[in-house]
Design a protein that fits this description.
The complex is a heterodimer of chains A (126) and B (897). Chain A is 56% helix and 16% strand. Chain A is built from 4 helices and 5 strands. Chain A has a 3-stranded antiparallel β-sheet. In chain A, strands 1-3 form a two-stranded parallel ribbon. The radius of gyration of chain B is 38 Å and the shape is elongated. Classes of the chains: A alpha+beta (126), B alpha+beta (897).
Chain lengths: 126, 897
C-alpha cells in the first residue's frame, strides 16, 4: 500500500543514523499521536527520534507530506495552537478513523514481523 | 474509500487550499524555531543554535515544495494555473479578446440556431418506441381520378385502409386516423378540443402506454370510449384518477373515459390531440357513416409499424403490389402508395414535394451556417495570430527560460479553449434568446416548444466550440512558438518597413474571409430574392377587407338540418345588412377541406378537374370579373356551369370559345348529395358553360388553381356552405354571428383572408429573413475581424509609425504603411470571391434552380455591386483603426522601446 523506499542517507555529520522508511513513518506518526495526544510536527519528529534511541532521523521533507496525507485520508486532524514554550505551531490529533487505522496497521505489522522473525529464527537454527 | 477521499481533497486543494502557502511557511518556520530552541537549551548561543537548526532541517524551500506537491494534483494544478494565466493575459488585450469572443459567439450561436431549426424540421422523429420503424402512408393518383376529398387528396378511404390492413405482411400493423375539431361540454363550459378519430389498433401500432386506465383496443371499435391526453388530464382535471369511468360530452355524443395516454404522446401530427375516440363509432355518431363504405373518399391519415425483421424497402415493394389492387377497385386510375419513415413534422404540414424543397433550402442554410462558422473561426485565428505576433517577445523569454515548446503551445491552446468556451456559452444564450423571442412567429410555434432546447443542440454547441478552439488555436500557437528566442529578444525592434512576421498567413486569412463573405452575401441575396419572388402573391382578387365566415354545428344526427337552418338565417342577416358584399361558397379561399376531383369531358377529350359550388354573389364579392359570359344567377341549376380560364384553355384553347359549350362530368360532388333521392348514384351530368372566370390562386398561396368547374349553389348545399364577405371591418360580422349563435351549441368562425395569406407565407418569409441575416452577420463578422486585425497591427507597430512620423512622413504615407497590405488582401479576396461565384454560378445554376423560385443566375452587374460594397465596408473597417496611427506622437512611440 505504501511506497517503501529508502531516502539516501544525509551526509551532514549524523553518520550511523538511518532515515525513517516512508512506509513505516505513517505508523510511527499514528503511534506517537496515540501516546502523546495532540502534538506539533517538531514534537512528533523528536519523539520518533527519541523512541528509536536516536538511531532514526526524521526528514521534515518526508514528515510534513505524510502528515498532510494522513489528514487528507481522515486519520488525523490539525489546528493551530501554542507549544509548551509559547511558540505558535500546528497541532495534529488522532481521529476515530485514525485509531482504527492504527489498530489495523499495528496488527498487520506485528503479523509481518512475527513471520519475518520466525524465518530468521529458523535460519539461525540451521 | 480512504483513497477516494484523499483524491477528492487533493482535487479540491487545487481550487480551495487546505493549506495556504503562508500557512505551510509558518508551520515549517515554527518547526525550525522549536529546533533552535532545543539547541539553545543544550547550551548553544543564539546564532549557533539557529545555524545548527538550519543545517539539521535542510532546505526550507525544497521541504515546502514537497509539502505543497502533496496538497493538490500537479497536472491539474498546471491546468488551473494555465487557465488563470490565460484569463489574465486575455484580460490584458481586452478589445481583441472581446472581438474574438463576439465573433465566435455569433458563429456558434447562429450555426446552432440554424441547425436546431433544420433538425426540428427535417429529421426529428416521433417520441415513440423505435420511432425509426414507424412509417406514414399516403396516396398519389394519376389517370382518371374520381375522388371526394375531406382533408387532402393524398389521404386514404376507409375501404382502402381495410384492404391494406388485410394484405400487408411487411407492416406489423396499419392504423388510420383523422383529426377533427370538436366542442367538449365540460362543467357548463365549452372547450374547443382536437379529437383523434382512430382505428382501434392505433395505440398498439404506435406502442403508446397509458398513464392511467387503459387505451383503446379491438373491443372498443364500436364502444363510445375515449382516451384523453395527459395535457388535458393535467390542465383541466387536475390529474384526478377518478375521471376514468366518467362520461364526457363531445359535440352531441357522450363517451366514457377509459384511460389517459402517456405524457410524451400527443399524436403523430403537428397539431396536438386532446382526445382519442374509436373511428368506426365516432364517424357514424358524427353523421359520416357513409364514409366508412365510400372507397373514393380521401379522409384518413395512415400510420404503420414495420414488422419485426421487415425493412422499409420491403414495405415499399409491398405497397406497389397493394396499389395495383386499388387500381382494380377504381378502373382507369393509377395509384401510388407512398411509404415513408415518419418524421415529427411531415405530410400534415408539408406535401412531399414541398418537403424536398424545404430540405433543399434547409441544407443550403446549414451549409451557409457552416461557412459562417468557418469564417468566424478563421477570423478568430487571424486575431489570435495578431496577438501571438505581438507576444513573440514574451514567448521567446519563456522558451529561453526553459519552457518546452509543447508546454507553450499547451498554454496558448488553453487560451483559445477558454475563449471558445466563453463564446459557446454566449452563443448558446444567443440561440436560446433568439428562440424564445421568435418561436411564436413560426406558424407551428407549439411544435418547437416541445423540443427546444435539447441534448442534440447542447452537444452540437459544445462540439462546435471544441472544433472552433482547435481550428483557430492550433495554427497561431504553432506559429508563435516557432521563434528563435535570442533573435526575438534582441531584435525587439523590427526592421523598419520590414514585413511583420506572420503577415502572410494573416493576410491570406483576411482575403479568404472576404472571398467567403462575398460568396455568402451573393447566395443569401439570391435566396432572399427567390423567396421574395415566390411570395409575390397574386391571388387574382383583392384580399383587403375580405373575410370568410364558417359555420360550425356540433357533429351529430341532426347536424345537417341545424346547419342548413343556421346558414339560411345568417345568409338573410348578412344580406340585409347594408355595406356588405356577401357570397356563399362550399370551399372558401384558403379555408376549408380541399376540393373534390373528377374527370370532365368535352367531346372526346377529358381533363382532371376540381369542383367548387358558388352562388351568384361569390365572384362579385371577390371582385372577380368574368373573362367571358356571365356570372351565376339565382335561377341557375346544375345544368349551368362556370369554368376557369385554365379549364377553358384545356378544352377549347380560348376563353371566349367556351361559352355555350357542353361539358360532361361525373357529379362527384358532395356527401350531402347522397341524401337526395334519385341522386344517390354518381351519375354523369352535362352542363353548359355560361361564364369563364380568370384562374385564381384560392387553395395554395403562390400556386394557381388547377382546371376548376364552378357549379351554381342550390338550396341543399346550405348544409356545407360558408360565406365570403367584404366588410369595412370585422366587428359587424362578429356581432351578427354572435347574436345568431347565442344560446345554441353552434359556433361560427370569422377569418380575415388577408391574415390567412400572410400566415401561410410566414415560413418562407422567415427563411428569407434568416438567409439575409446570415449574410449580414457574415459581413459584420468579417468587418469586426478586419477591424481587430488592423487595430492590433497599428497598436503593435506604434514604434515603427512613430519613427516614420518623426522622420516627417506625410499622413498619406503613414496610412499606406498601415493599410496597404490589408487593403491589398481585401481587394484580392473580393476578386477571388467574384471568380469563385462566377464559376460556381456557371456550374451550380442547375442545382440551385429549384430553390431560387425563378430568379435568374447571377448577373455580373449585381455581383460587381456586391463586391464593391463589400470592399467598401471592409475598407472602412480597416480605416477606422488605422486613423489611430495618424495620431501617434513620435516621442511617445520612441519612449516605449
Amino acid at each position: 500500500m505504501w511506497v517503501t523506499q529508502m531516502t539516501p542517507p544525509a551526509n551532514d555529520g549524523r553518520e550511523g543514523k538511518t532515515e525513517v522508511w516512508q512506509g513505516t513513518l505513517a505508523l510511527m506518526v499514528l503511534t506517537t499521536l496515540e501516546a502523546l495526544g495532540p502534538q506539533h510536527g517538531f514534537g512528533i519528529a523528536r519523539r520518533i527520534e527519541q523512541t528509536s534511541g536516536d538511531r532514526l532521523s526524521v526528514n521534515p521533507g518526508t514528515l510534513y507530506p505524510t502528515l498532510l496525507k494522513l489528514e487528507q485520508e481522515g486519520s488525523i486532524t490539525s489546528k493551530w495552537g501554542v507549544s509548551e514554550n509559547g511558540r505558535r505551531a500546528r497541532f495534529y490529533q488522532l481521529t476515530r478513523a485514525g485509531r482504527k487505522q492504527l489498530a489495523d496497521e499495528t496488527r498487520q505489522w506485528q503479523t509481518t514481523s512475527d513471520i519475518v522473525a520466525r524465518f530468521l529464527a529458523a535460519a539461525r537454527v540451521r | 474509500m480512504k483513497n477516494i477521499r484523499a483524491g477528492l481533497l487533493r482535487l479540491a486543494g487545487i481550487f480551495r487550499r487546505t493549506r495556504s502557502d503562508r500557512e505551510i511557511d509558518e508551520e515549517l518556520r515554527a518547526h525550525l524555531t522549536l529546533l533552535a530552541d532545543e539547541y539553545r537549551r543544550a547550551g548553544f548561543s543564539d546564532t549557533e543554535a539557529q545555524r545548527a537548526a538550519a543545517a539539521k532541517f535542510g532546505s526550507l524551500t525544497s521541504v515546502a515544495e514537497a509539502y505543497r506537491d502533496r496538497r493538490g494534483i500537479p497536472v491539474l494544478e498546471q491546468l488551473a494555473a494555465d487557465c488563470r494565466y490565460a484569463a489574465r493575459s486575455l484580460g490584458q488585450t481586452r478589445i481583441l479578446s472581446i472581438s474574438m469572443i463576439l465573433v465566435l459567439a455569433l458563429g456558434i450561436g447562429v450555426t446552432t440556431t440554424l441547425v436546431t431549426l433544420f433538425h426540428a424540421v427535417a429529421f426529428r422523429t416521433l417520441p415513440l418506441p423505435d420511432p425509426d420503424r414507424v412509417v406514414k402512408l399516403s396516396l398519389g393518383f394519376a389517370g382518371e381520378v374520381n375522388r371526394r376529398v375531406n382533408g387532402h387528396v393524398s389521404q386514404f378511404s376507409y375501404p382502402e385502409l381495410t384492404l391494406y390492413q388485410g394484405s400487408t405482411r411487411a407492416l406489423a400493423g396499419v392504423a388510420g386516423f383523422r383529426h377533427e375539431r370538436a366542442t367538449w361540454f365540460h362543467d357548463g363550459n365549452r372547450r374547443s378540443v382536437t379529437v383523434g378519430l382512430v382505428t382501434a389498433n392505433y395505440f398498439k401500432v404506435l406502442q403508446v402506454q397509458p398513464a392511467a386506465g387503459r387505451l383503446l383496443a379491438g373491443v372498443d371499435r364500436l364502444q363510445p370510449a375515449a382516451v384523453i391526453s395527459h395535457r388535458l388530464w393535467t390542465d383541466t382535471l387536475r390529474q384526478d384518477p377518478a375521471v376514468i369511468g366518467t362520461s364526457m360530452l363531445i359535440d352531441r355524443q357522450s363517451y366514457t373515459v377509459i384511460g389517459v395516454a402517456e405524457r410524451s404522446f400527443s399524436g403523430t401530427e403537428v397539431d396536438t390531440l386532446d382526445v382519442w375516440v374509436p373511428l368506426d363509432l365516432a364517424a357514424a355518431a358524427r353523421g359520416h357513416a357513409e364514409r366508412l363504405v365510400d372507397s373514393s373518399m380521401s379522409w384518413l391519415l395512415v400510420v404503420g409499424r414495420l414488422a419485426p425483421g421487415g425493412s422499409l424497402k420491403s414495405a415499399v415493394a409491398e405497397a406497389g403490389i397493394i396499389s395495383a389492387r386499388y387500381d382494380a377497385m377504381h378502373p382507369g386510375q393509377r395509384t401510388t402508395v407512398v411509404v415513408s419513415q415518419a418524421a415529427a413534422l411531415d405530410a400534415g404540414l408539408l406535401q412531399s414535394s414541398d418537403r424536398a424543397k424545404v430540405i433543399g433550402v434547409g441544407a443550403v442554410v446549414v451549409v451557409l451556417a457552416a461557412v459562417l462558422l468557418l469564417i468566424c473561426t478563421s477570423n478568430a485565428a487571424a486575431l489570435l495570430l495578431a496577438r501571438a505576433v505581438a507576444r513573440q517577445r514574451e514567448i521567446a523569454i519563456r522558451i529561453a527560460l526553459g519552457a518546452g515548446r509543447w508546454r507553450v503551445v499547451q498554454q496558448l491552446m488553453t487560451e483559445s479553449a477558454l475563449l471558445a468556451l466563453v463564446a459557446a456559452g454566449v452563443g448558446l444564450a444567443l440561440c436560446t434568446i433568439v428562440f424564445r423571442t421568435t418561436a411564436h412567429l413560426l406558424p407551428i410555434a407549439g411544435y418547437f416548444d416541445r423540443f427546444v432546447p435539447d441534448v442534440t443542440v447542447l452537444s452540437f454547441a459544445s462540439l462546435a466550440a471544441l472544433a472552433a478552439a482547435i481550428l483557430f488555436g492550433v495554427a497561431p500557437a504553432v506559429y508563435a512558438t516557432r521563434v528563435d528566442p535570442l533573435a526575438a529578444i534582441k531584435h525587439d525592434l523590427k526592421g523598419l518597413g520590414e514585413r511583420m512576421p506572420g503577415s502572410r498567413l494573416r493576410h491570406s486569412l483576411v482575403a479568404g474571409q472576404v472571398a467567403i463573405s462575398l460568396v455568402l452575401l451573393v447566395i443569401s441575396g439570391l435566396l432572399a430574392r427567390g423567396v421574395g419572388h415566390a411570395l409575390r402573391v397574386d391571388t387574382g382578387f383583392s384580399l383587403t377587407n375580405l373575410y370568410a365566415i364558417t359555420v360550425d354545428v356540433p357533429a351529430g344526427s341532426a347536424t345537417r338540418t341545424d346547419r342548413a337552418n343556421l346558414v339560411r338565417r345568417l345568409s338573410l342577416l348578412l344580406h340585409s345588412t347594408p355595406g356588405l358584399d356577401v357570397g356563399l361558397v362550399v370551399v372558401p379561399p384558403f379555408v376549408g377541406a380541399g376540393l373534390n376531383q373528377a374527370r370532365a369531358a368535352h367531346m372526346s377529350s377529358t381533363v382532371q378537374v376540381q369542383f367548387n359550388k358558388v352562388d351568384a354573389g361569390y365572384f362579385s364579392t371577390l371582385g372577380v370579373a368574368q373573362v367571358a359570359g356571365r356570372s351565376f344567377r339565382s335561377g341557375d341549376d346544375r345544368s349551368q356551369v362556370i369554368v376557369n380560364a385554365r379549364l377553358a384553355k384545356a378544352f377549347w384553347g380560348d376563353e371566349r370559345a367556351a361559352i355555350g359549350q357542353a361539358v360532361t362530368f361525373l357529379d362527384a360532388t358532395s356527401e350531402a348529395g347522397a341524401e337526395q333521392p334519385g341522386e344517390t348514384e354518381m351519375g354523369f351530368r352535362t352542363g353548359t358553360v355560361v361564364g369563364v372566370v380568370p384562374t385564381l390562386q384560392s387553395l395554395d398561396v403562390g400556386v394557381p388553381d388547377g382546371p376548376t368547374l364552378y357549379l351554381p349553389f342550390v338550396n341543399r348545399d346550405l348544409t356545407e356552405a360558408s360565406f365570403v364577405v367584404r366588410s369595412p371591418s370585422r366587428q359587424p360580422l362578429e356581432r351578427l354571428t354572435g347574436d345568431l349563435t347565442r344560446g345554441t351549441d353552434a359556433s361560427t368562425g370569422t377569418a380575415s383572408l388577408e391574415d390567412r395569406v400572410v400566415a401561410r407565407t410566414q415560413p418562407a418569409r422567415l427563411a428569407s429573413a434568416i438567409t439575409v441575416l446570415v449574410g449580414v452577420l457574415t459581413l459584420l463578422v468579417a468587418a469586426v475581424g478586419v477591424y481587430g486585425i488592423v487595430a492590433h497591427s497599428v497598436g503593435s507597430r506604434t514604434h515603427e509609425i512613430g519613427v516614420h512620423v518623426a522622420l516627417g512622413a506625410p499622413r498619406a504615407r503613414v496610412l499606406r504603411l498601415v493599410l496597404g497590405s490589408s487593403l491589398r488582401a481585401i481587394g484580392s479576396g473580393a476578386a477571388f470571391g467574384v471568380v469563385v461565384m462566377s464559376i460556381g454560378a456557371f456550374f451550380a445554376s442547375d442545382a440551385l434552380e429549384p430553390i431560387l423560385f425563378g430568379v435568374g443566375p447571377v448577373d455580373p452587374l449585381s455581383l460587381g455591386a456586391v463586391a464593391c460594397l463589400l470592399a467598401l465596408i471592409m475598407g472602412a473597417a480597416a480605416y477606422l483603426p488605422a486613423r489611430r496611427a495618424l495620431g501617434v506622437q513620435p516621442i511617445d512611440a520612441l519612449r516605449r522601446i
